[in-house]
């Protein structure tokens, strides 16, 4: 594992391989380790970079105002990369879309897996599910104290929040966590617990959030939108919306798959990536 300084912040990142550049953008319930199968497989034919976004994994928090997509573009500059394909999971997908709007000439292809969307309002049913699961995991008063950095973090609360995310997102609302591969489950649990420990203890910074919702038609980059059909219904609905709204997108639906198909179905996702990334370019 290596570190690279971008804009005064040290980012944890890995790079391997030669060829067209591909950047892997992790989900908000994990870090760059979620891409282990894809990082190794794609390095045989591509120059592959994965990194921990600001506030995740090995990347530091620095007080101030930042945007994840600006960090991404600055990291490309730091590595001398003019153009890259972006592969984003969950909120990593939202970051990829933001970058494609900000610098369309630099993004050659997009792969969005269980993607988020900056500025998106989640449907009422999903917000209600999340509110219920959060309340069951940690009392609201204690969450508020953690957010304000006014309480010492109880490891039991960290575990409870991680488990709530694993049940609802990683497995999916209608599946039991026992369906997940044990090694995957162990890594997701470790990553997700780290996310909450960090969120409740690290220095705070402000994220500049663009509103990408109404600009999807401007993104003409060739795209694949991948969604596990066992994921939360709001995320399935959003992926279908993305596929309908992006001019050059195709939708790939994976049966019996949750929120992290790159981890749960690595060989299927690797095959999708190889086929799409190695196809002849549709435009310069």
TrEMBL record:
Keywords for the protein's UniProt record, in alphabetical order: Hydrolase, Oxidoreductase, Peroxidase
Keyword Transcription assigned: no
Residue span, AB hydrolase-1 domain: 22-271
GO MF term list: hydrolase activity
Superkingdom of this protein's organism: Bacteria
Pfam family, one: Abhydrolase_6
Keyword Kinase among UniProt keywords: no
Protein name: Alpha/beta fold hydrolase
Species in which this protein is naturally found: Amycolatopsis nalaikhensis
Species lineage: Bacteria, Bacillati, Actinomycetota, Actinomycetes, Pseudonocardiales
């Amino acid at each position: 594992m290596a570190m690279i300084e971008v804009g005064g912040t040290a980012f944890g990142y890995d790079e391997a391989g030669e060829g067209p550049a591909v950047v892997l953008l992790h989900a908000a319930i994990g870090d760059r380790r979620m891409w282990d199968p894809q990082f190794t497989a794609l390095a045989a034919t591509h120059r592959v970079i994965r990194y921990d976004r600001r506030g995740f994994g090995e990347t530091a928090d620095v007080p101030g105002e930042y945007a994840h997509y600006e960090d991404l573009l600055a990291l490309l500059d730091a590595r001398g990369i003019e153009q890259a394909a972006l592969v984003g999971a969950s909120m990593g997908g939202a970051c990829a879309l933001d970058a494609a709007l900000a610098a369309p000439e630099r993004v050659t292809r997009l792969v969005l897996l269980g993607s988020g969307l900056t500025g998106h309002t989640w449907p009422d049913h999903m917000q209600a599910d999340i509110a219920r699961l959060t309340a069951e995991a940690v009392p609201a008063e204690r969450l508020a104290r953690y957010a304000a950095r006014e309480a010492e973090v109880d490891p039991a609360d960290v575990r409870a929040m991680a488990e709530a995310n694993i049940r609802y997102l990683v497995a999916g609302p209608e599946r039991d966590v026992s369906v997940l591969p044990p090694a995957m489950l162990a890594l997701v649990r470790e990553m997700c617990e780290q996310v909450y420990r960090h969120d409740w203890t690290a220095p705070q910074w402000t994220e500049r959030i663009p509103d990408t919702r109404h600009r999807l038609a401007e993104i003409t980059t060739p795209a694949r939108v991948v969604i596990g059909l066992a994921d939360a219904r709001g995320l399935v609905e959003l992926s279908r919306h993305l596929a309908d709204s992006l001019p050059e997108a195709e939708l790939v639906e994976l049966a019996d798959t949750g929120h992290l198909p790159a981890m749960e179905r690595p060989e299927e996702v690797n095959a999708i990536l190889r086929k799409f990334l190695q196809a002849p370019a549709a435009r310069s």
